[in-house]
Amino acid sequence: MSGSWLRIRDEEKNGGPADTLAVCFAPTGAHGSTFAGWHGRLPHGMALVLVTPPGRGTRVDEEPVVDMAVYADAVVAEVRALAAGRRLVLIGVSLGALLAFEVCRRLLETGVPVARLCVVAGQSPGDFAGSGGEVTLEDARAFATGTGLTDPELLADPEFEEVLLPPIQADLTLAAHYAGRASAAAHVSLRAVWAVEDPHVPEAAVRRWREWTTADCTVLSVEGGHYAHQENPAAVLSACLDGLSRAAGPSRRTVLGSGAAVVSGSVLALGTATAAAPKAAAAQRTAASAAGGGAGGRAFDGDPTDPVELAIAMIRQNTSNPGDGAITLPYARMLEGIFRAAEVATEIVPTPKEGNVHFFARVPAHGGSTRKKPLLLLGHSDVVPAVGDAWTREPFTGEIADGRLYGRGALDMKGVNAAFVAALLRHVRQGTRFDRDIVFWSDCDEEQGPYGVRWLLTEHPDTVEAGAVLTEGGWVLNQRDGRTPMIAALTCNDKRSLLLRLEAASYATHTSKPFGGQAVIRLGEVLEQLGGWRAGIRPNALSRMYFAELARATADPAMAAAIREMLDARTEARRNRAGDTVVRLSDTPELHNAMLRTTLAFTSAKAGYYPSIVPGTATAEFRAAFLPGGDDPGRIVAELRSLIGNRATLTVVGNPGESEEQAVARLRGYLAVLDSSHDTDVFRAWQEAVRQTHPGVRATACQFEAVTSAVPFRERNVPVYGMYPFTVSRDMLKRMHGTDEHIGVEALRQGTETVYQLLARLRAEA
After folding, report:
1. Is residue 392 classed as helix, strand or coil in its secondary structure?
2. Phi and psi (nearest 5°) for 271?
3. Distance of alpha carbon 651 from alpha carbon 498, whole angstroms
4. How far apart are CA 417 and CA 426, in angstroms?
5. Proportion of the chain above pLDDT 90, given as a percent
6. Are 742 and 407 spatial neighbours (Cβ–Cβ below 8 Å)?
7. Which pLDDT belongs to residue 122?
8. Burial readout 97-127 (b: 16 or more C-beta within 10 A, e: otherwise)
9. Bridge partner list, 722
């Protein structure tokens, strides 16, 4: 074995020397090329390390290894030398899962830490007793053709057969002689990934990996077959790596890859077991569908009226949106099973992007007809990715600790979805008869993507006709003691934002000749100045209503006095001074600041392309968010340009083909959409529900500080109301779209009761 087992890829392309190495073990018969679709997709600061065994690829002339211990020991020796203090993630696909596990055990035994072990479409060590017999070339040929691994015409060519079959024979021999049952579990954070269309390794087999770690184990599903790592590289990488990246730079992962490529990788069973596996997997999928899992989804076996159980199951469905839409079909299948078990009609509406779907469930009005249009409970199934910053909790396990439920989407907005579903199904279980249809809609592209609410209302206008909409929005806040509920808000309009780009320019030169006006320095100076900029306090009608109620609700007399002074101010200077005092005294200053003025949020910066060149340009992007009825976007853009002068160029980033004037005009149109009326039976039902679940708490209309999917409805004069029905803290709000996102477990239960009581007030008359 003269060749090197390890090849490192993408290190320089992905930010220079990597602080994290993703060591990848290929399926049966394959080598590093099976991971070709992973190049360029790793988060900043990570590099691929490809395990290349003897007998294939660049080592085709070497004798294959057929002993697990020899294989693992050789890899461990090279990994230890390469790691040099860097963080290790081991990823194994199919047979590679066993190889990664054995390497992981040996590394841990020798004191080398492993941050995470990821096993994809692989059987666990307990499935291997080491009692297999001799594996012949004929076995390898039958294996390759029987699994569809290789085109039979290729195997008919003696030259191809000579190259393809020996590695398969060697790996099948290794698996046949592997006494995995005798191995000890490893103390390592483990991700077990099941491909939902895998005919060879069913979900039950993947779940058995839980027995092979003494630490935490997360089982995730992705779309695709046994070679999902090729068919669906972004989803597999997300399942394996989310929550690990420590770098501040953006992820380089792209959306799901297209079609599968044929490689020499396959399943781990031998002989008749291989032929039977597809039938067993098909039977399992049929049973899962009947039980509610459906094709591509996992059945929910908990109590659907328990919002905590529901929220955990929702969080465990990784619906990360990489920027142009999430893969939501498995999530939708889970919901389909939940509602069908309650005999509620469902519908899944696909979008042009494969796996990207909308989900609907409809509880019909009593008697089947009503003059009242449906109430729509609108949630979104997609979540922002959990990459870029390190979590202290696994983002897709739904872990409960210290009374908090952690996970990506816990707050935004799977916790709300769970409250909607649990409250509605509790009524269904009790036989409640409503005076209108109640429709639950799970939108797939709220965070980013072209196929969200506006697309569906345009392309499928007959799917749902709403009389009113409840979605994400207003908050329930506590008094300063952090325990006593103070005020509940139902939002009736959203802020809207404009993307802006800064570019500072000088000239490029050799790093040996730096100068004072470098582009990066100029950009930093401008960003610092913009970071200190503050728009004037300009509360609109909804914000004035909310803060008037807050002044009555707060137990802090200084806060109440500052609010009254702000609302009564006759001059801009006095209003700004009082408003800044309100923000300073608030327990949630970021929230209340955003409800009172235009804000700037800085999202990215970029400069440099070679280590010995001082770059000639440096850019940054940020969002300016505007209140309806507040500042004019054109005036704010002009003010910011005046502020930065000629030190940088400020441009408006509109839609493709849009001029700055068109982008600003479009934003003005959004800001002109009227507030949703708070003189409706749904709004009053919410107020009555809050009074019952939170006695003494003020319940008021409010301005939302963010953007939701409400605008297309409001443009159609449909009232839309936003609610996060559970109490939140400043820390919880700061972690929205951030690390260690969480909600309170008991707060979720109480918030679900509020939704239940709201729906109870929409009962049909006897």
Report:
1. coil
2. 55, -130
3. 11
4. 14
5. 69
6. yes
7. 94
8. bbbbbbbbbbbeeeebebbbbbbbbbbbbbb
9. 471, 491
Question: Tokens representing 284?
Answer: 């399992």
Q: Give me the residues paired with residue 474 across strands.
A: 723
∠ at Cα 556 (552, 560), nearest 5°? Answer: 45
Backbone angles phi, psi at 542, to 5 degrees: -65, -40
- Please report the sign of the dihedral spanned by the C-alpha atoms of residue 112, residue 117, residue 119, residue 125: positive
C-alpha span between 764 and 367 (Å, rounded)? 9
- In whole angstroms, what is the distance from residue 341 CA to residue 755 CA? 21
Higher pLDDT pick, 157 / 139: 139
Angle at 566 between CA 563 and CA 569, to 5 degrees: 145
Task: Provide the β-strand partners of residue 47.
Answer: 21
- Cis peptide leading into residue 566 (ω within 30°): no
Q: Helix or strand or coil: residue 673?
A: coil
Q: How confident is the model at residue 14 (pLDDT cuts 50, 70, 90)?
A: very low
- Tell me, rounded to whole angstroms, the distance of Cα 448 from its chain centroid: 11
**For residues 319 and 383, is the Cβ–Cβ distance under 8 A?**
yes
Strands 404-406 and 742-744: antiparallel
State the average pLDDT over residues 344-355. Answer: 94
Q: Secondary structure of 281-317 in the HEC alphabet?
A: HHHHHHHHHHHCCCCCCCCCCCCCCCHHHHHHHHHHC
DSSP codes joined into one string, 414-471: IHHHHHHHHHHHHHHHHT--BSS-EEEEEES-SSS-SSSHHHHHHH-TTS---SEEEE
Cα distances (Å, whole numbers) of residue 564 to 476, 543, 555, 656, 720: 21, 13, 14, 45, 29
Between 681-693 and 745-760, two packed helices, what is the crossing angle to 10 degrees? 130
Tell me the C-alpha distance between 476 and 200, whole Å. 49
Strand order in the sheet with 617-626: 599-607, 617-626, 496-505, 649-653
Q: Residue 498: beta bridge partners? A: 624
Counting every residue, how long is the chain? Answer: 766
Asked if residue 439 lies in contact with residue 375, where contact means CB atoms within 8 angstroms, the answer is yes
Based on its alpha-carbon atoms, the radius of gyration of the chain, rounded to whole angstroms, reads: 29
185-227 pLDDT per residue, tens: 999 999 999 998 888 888 888 989 999 999 888 888 888 888 8
| Separation of alpha carbons 37 and 687, rounded Å | 53
Token pair belonging to 363: 């509880």
Collapse the DSSP code of 680 into the 3-class scheme (helix H, G, I; strand E, B; otherwise coil) and give the result: coil
Is residue 63 within 8 Å of 14, Cβ to Cβ?
Answer: no
Q: Can you tell me the distance from the alpha carbon of 504 to that of 519, in angstroms, rounded to the nearest whole number?
A: 5
Residue at 242: amino acid letter: D
pLDDT of the residue at 697: 95
Q: Which residue has the tokens 């092979």?
A: 212
DSSP type of residue 181: G
CA distance 170 to 163: 12
